[in-house]
TrEMBL record:
Top-level taxon of origin: Bacteria
Residue span of region Disordered: 98-135
Originating organism: Alteromonas gracilis
Protein name per its UniProtKB record: Heme oxygenase
UniProt feature, compositional bias: Basic and acidic residues: 104-115
Length: 258
């Protein structure tokens, strides 16, 4: 059987790179700039992702007791609470964070011409993003649940979900320190919570490696199926980003093409 984590690192690299180059996540290529509108978009998308993955992990835990130890490694309640705090703080502190810090952000990392740059300079544009933020974080998540792919099984979906979740936490501490170093007061509860999640990475790998032989007894293609589901989670995040951008564009966000 292939080494799972080597397979995950190698076979999800393309989607990992695509996600990093997808708006709004591409804002983190600009180390010294802060864009409130894009930051709001990141929080909205990650809230949707964490809600979806937490649900998938809970479903798998209910059907496969062996996954309880792995499921305990992500504190979904703490992470979702932290995101909500940041979203609330951004709304409450609108007068503090009402302008882009530094030159207008231009996203030059997109691969498709129709979404290669974003400019966020006015209150109208920020309000458009907030409108999109409200749609993504509203109680009606039917449209977003339709973006969820079909996974191989609850078990493979859950292991893949936690892999993407914890993998995304690896840079949380760096992002949090970078944002805290800005002149503006930027809420970073989410990245602080994800920094705590990052401490579970080694335990996650150890627990999964210990479980794999037993789980593979009923699934000879287990590693390949987990990798496929991990790619599906990455693709889900990419779709959320594209959907958010499309929604915001339709609400008068200025998005310039090459």
């Amino acid at each position: 059987m292939r080494n799972l984590f080597n397979a995950l690192k190698q076979d999800t690299q393309a989607n990992h790179t695509a996600l990093e180059n997808t708006f709004p996540f591409s804002i983190y290529h600009q180390k010294h700039l802060f864009d409130k509108a894009a930051y709001c978009a990141v929080l909205a998308i990650m809230k949707e992702f964490h809600q979806s993955t937490a649900g998938a992990v809970k479903q798998a835990e209910d059907t496969e007791a062996k996954l309880t130890q792995i499921a305990a490694l992500i504190d979904s309640n703490a992470v979702l609470t932290a995101i909500s705090k940041d979203i609330h703080a951004l709304d409450a502190n609108n007068t503090i964070l009402n302008e882009t810090h530094g030159p207008s952000y231009r996203d030059t990392h997109q691969t498709k011409p129709d979404s290669s740059r974003g400019t966020f300079a006015t209150d109208k544009e920020t309000n458009s993003v907030k409108s999109g933020l409200g749609e993504l974080t509203s109680k009606d998540t039917h449209a977003h649940s339709n973006l969820l792919p079909t996974f191989h099984s609850p078990t493979t979906s859950a292991i893949a979900a936690i892999y993407v979740w914890l993998g995304s936490s690896m840079g949380a501490n760096i992002i949090s320190r970078r944002l805290n170093a800005m002149e503006q007061t930027i809420p970073t509860h989410y990245y602080q919570a994800m920094s705590e999640c990052a401490k579970s990475w080694v335990s996650f790998k150890q627990c999964v490696d210990a479980l794999l032989p037993e789980l593979a007894l009923n699934n000879e293609n287990l590693v390949d199926n987990i990798v496929r589901d991990a790619n599906a989670w990455f693709e889900y995040l990419i779709k959320l980003g594209k959907q958010f951008q499309a929604t915001s564009t339709s609400k008068d966000m200025v998005v310039n093409s090459l």
